[in-house]
Amino acid sequence: MDRRIFGLETEYGVTFTLHGQRRINPDDVARIIFRRIVASGKSSNVFLENGSRLYLDVGSHPEYATAECDNLFDLLAQDRAGDVLMNELVDSAQRQISAEGTSGDIHLFKNNVDSAGNSYGCHENYCTERDEDLSRHEQFLIPFLITRQLFAGAGRVITTPSRGTYFSLSQRAEHIWETISSATTRSRPIINTRDEPHADPERYRRLHVILGDSNMSDFATVLKVGATCLVLSMVEDKNTVLRDLTLDNPMKALREVATDPLGDRNVTVRLTNGRELTAWQLQSEICERVENYVQGRDLSDDQRFVVAAWRATLDQMADDPFVLADRIDWITKMQLITQLCNSEGVGLSHPKVALVDLLFHDTHPTRGIYNKLRLKGNTVRLVTDEAVNLAVSTPPQTTRARLRGEFVRRAKEKRRDFTVDWVHLKLNDHVQRTLILKDPFKSHDERFDRLYETL
Questions:
Q1: What confidence category does residue 42 fall into, taking pLDDT thresholds of 50, 70 and 90?
Q2: Residues 211-246 pLDDT 10s
Q3: Per-domain residue ranges for the chain?
Q4: Residue, of 107 and 194, whose pLDDT is higher
Q5: CB contact set of 359 (below 8 Å; sequence gap of 6+)
Q6: Residue 447 CB contacts under 8 Å (≥ 6 apart), including other chains
Q7: Which of 303, 305, 253 is nearest to 283 (CA)?
Q8: Cα separation of 173 and 153, whole Å?
Q9: Which residues does the annotation mark as catalytic?
Q10: CA 13 → CA 173, 230, 246, 397, distances in Å?
Q11: Among 46, 65, 67, which Cα is nearest to 399's?
């Protein structure tokens, strides 16, 4: 599949504190944040003018699912637009709480683990061809996903009885228990196989990857999704012979790789064929195979960017990973924490380290640590503020999201009662007209034009 539809789902963490003490429980904070949404949409589960979905998920986590994208830079703008939209809701909720006489601040975090150890996700969705045989995914995609922590991990300080306190590449690694499964919460898998294609089920299925961390970095977000798309293309191409990289113990490999960010312990992963490689060696081999696969192919600009960035990132990691502190989340965070520990003379278990670890993910545009670095120009930016602000109200123009976003905008303008999901556009009038859009690649449709004219 040369052209692919993809999207991101981000579950945010919320808290309301005064001088570090929680004042309102997260359930109530989340409901206050969604008051404006419920008032306008009569529900805490709505689709927006930019084609995205915004809803209150289980566990009181606000969740933003981007519109369908077929370009990585569009996806990045749509993902960042989610932060903007959520912070607008937080600002509104903050004013309401203050008006009611309660002091404190709402914090919205783009992370994956709370202080109690509960995990919430950043899920990736990839439209794939309908194929029930996932053996090639086990052989090639799973090893890639496990070792891509090297550039996609968000980093976290973890304390366990067996290892003590250490810096982990990934926030999600400790919370994943299977490779491929239909479960989501009981035993979280790397790939969730629940068959909800949000498209023509005869032609497509939706690959739901729930392993990944939420990234603050533009670069890491684009590289994470872009490299996965390229690997998927190889896996789907049955004319391409894949070397079997099946891991002997995937869950052990996932956790071992996460505990060795700088390769200090020379951790290797073992394949079922007996080979042992470091995470870097396995990633480098996969990257080389992708480079050979795309040679001579007509790649889009964003795909060419990913191929070059992937190789350059791995080469730099082999030389000096801290040079990548302006583009890889875990390296940025590790550098900040190392500087704090050295300057304050404290260890990883110190409360100041925990505070930096958390505030790194605060989405407030000027209060969050990562966003402060972004404002100072200390991070690689791949999308402009203008593009992000446009994505707040405008859907991608090359996918089905364009139709959904235009329908929502027009129906709201005309004060029409409507119902929308990923596939259906419905006017709730006496005729009960419903348009079914099964092709996520299709951004124009004559049937839509006729329905639009009736609004």
A1: confident
A2: 999 999 999 999 999 999 999 999 999 999 999 999
A3: 400-453
A4: 107
A5: 367, 368, 369
A6: 435
A7: 253
A8: 9
A9: 57
A10: 18, 31, 34, 30
A11: 67
